[in-house]
Amino acid sequence: MAKQASIQGLQAFQDARFGMFIHWGLYSLIGRGEWVMHYESIPVAEYEKLASQFNPQKFDAGQWVSTAADAGQKYMVITSRHHDGFSMYDTALSDYKITNSPFRRDPLAELANACARRGDIKLGFYSSLLDWHHPAYRFCLESGLAWSDYLAFLHGQVEELCTDYGDVACLWFDGYWPHDLDEPGREYFKPGGSFEFESLYDRIHTLQPQAVVINNHHDRPIPGEDIQGFEQDLPGENTASFNRTSTAYLPLEVCMTINDNWGIAPADQNHKSSIRLVHLLSRSAAAGANFLLNVGPSAEGEILPVHASRLRQVGAWLEQYGQAVYATRAGELAPARDGSYVSTRGKDCHYVLSLYYISDCLKLEGVPEAISQAALLDGTPLRADRQAGMLMVTIPPERRDPFATGIRLF
């Protein structure tokens, strides 16, 4: 039987509810997203030249961790190596890495140290399963390398991440989408063999018993995976066309961008408002899912000011209403059919997050008969009346938060 993360690790991950995703690499120099090498058919030899230009002198690990803390985020997940094959840490398994760029430093080690100093934010790692640079992935026969060479590289890098950077929150895999491999034009993404997930996951759970494993393969989880992920959508939705599978039995995570790109793209100004981000966080928690929100830092190593500002506004809201998000589980009250509210479940109460004010009171359906009272999260009692099988809760206009108002039912 495949190993899983420890009960404590799974609980800590679910309790966190809000994390920072970080897509950062050589593609940041180009500024057209993290898939630019593929979309623009940049040859390997040409793309490699970016490594000699990468020197993010404004990178400050402590500042990044402080930004996450200000946002109320409890974990960070950074790209250790994206599909372009460039390692963002001092791996012993490749010379194509950030410590061989003019920057010379290991930002993952600096982030691990910064997280350890704070103690309240954990660090996790994204690892790409495909690699547009590694010859054993791209063309085994022409390079004379076998698939086993790439497998040793991939598994070896994961072992480095699990042994050299302290306690790890999660290993987040991406780059293998079995549903998509038979579509025209997807031949480039077909692996040369099995990724041997069972042994890979078992190794992670042995080295980091509390770390959870997530694989963004847009399919139902397989043994050894601890979390089911959804990309650019809430569980049960498929507006992005990635999530064509049903929700399984595992804890959930939603990953999403603040604008439309994962890697930095200055032309992309479609930034979600802070209110929209609060609503997405609330709806994720109500579905029993963590919300992993992405930032794409600049080539100089800075989180974009507009993203940092949005994050701080979400954090200010969480300071007041975080008890309805952190350490909660999926709401037992169905979301309002008109979208006006969602609910989460605490240890001894129901929480309701009022997102829109359709009328003067919330018309809550499905509230157990034993519950008859409501209060704001600061303890201020609210009027609650039973009518036509619903609990009608009145929130005075002056106490309505413009982002979302949290209340407790008991």
Would you give an account of this structure?
The protein is of the alpha/beta class. The chain has helices at residues 7-16, 27-30, 36-39, 44-48, 61-70, 107-118, 135-138, 140-143, 147-163, 197-207, 274-286, 305-321, and strands at residues 18-22, 75-81, 122-128, 168-174, 212-215, 228-231, 252-257, 289-295, 329-330, 341-345, 350-354, 361-364, 374-376, 381-387, 390-394, 405-409. The strands form two sheets. The chain has an eight-stranded parallel β-sheet, sandwiched between helices. Strand 4 (168-174), helix 10 (197-207) and strand 5 (212-215) form a beta-alpha-beta unit. The protein is elongated and about 75 Å long.
What structural keywords apply?
single chain; 410 residues; alpha/beta; TIM Barrel; Immunoglobulin-like; 2 domains; eight-stranded antiparallel sheet; 16 strands; 27% helix; 20% strand
Task: Sum this structure up briefly.
The chain has helices spanning 7-16, 27-30, 36-39, 44-48, 61-70, 107-118, 135-138, 140-143, 147-163, 197-207, 274-286, 305-321, and strands spanning 18-22, 75-81, 122-128, 168-174, 212-215, 228-231, 252-257, 289-295, 329-330, 341-345, 350-354, 361-364, 374-376, 381-387, 390-394, 405-409.
